[in-house]
Design goal:
The chain is α+β, with helices and mostly antiparallel strands and about 100 residues long. It contains 2 helices and 5 strands; from the N terminus they run ββββαβα.
Length: about 100
């Protein structure tokens, strides 16, 4: 099983295609410096494989590489960032939300 996410800039989401199904994490540009991660979805058939975490880590690494902050509007992304303190510096201040 290939677990390499890709960034689909046209659809504003990060995707992971497995077994003909697509898990994704949607984002929006809030400002020039802030990306809002708005929704994470994993098809029921693919759940329990840690795919949301793989997507989230990939998306956060992409934001870091771009020098962007992240507004975790998706509850999964918010919890992931709370549990993985190495991403604290990427969190956008609440005044931007």
């Amino acid at each position: 099983m290939d677990q390499t996410p890709v960034k689909n800039e046209l659809m504003h989401r990060f995707e992971l295609n497995i077994e003909g199904k697509t898990a994704f994490l949607e984002y929006q540009h809030q400002t020039t410096e802030v990306l809002a991660f708005t929704h994470t979805f994993v098809p029921p058939e693919l759940r329990g494989r840690n795919l949301a975490a793989i997507l989230t880590q990939f998306a956060l690494a992409d934001a870091r590489q771009q020098g962007k902050k992240v507004a975790p509007l998706c509850s999964y992304v918010d919890r992931f960032m709370q549990r993985n303190k190495e991403f604290n510096l990427l969190r956008a201040s609440s005044t931007v939300l």
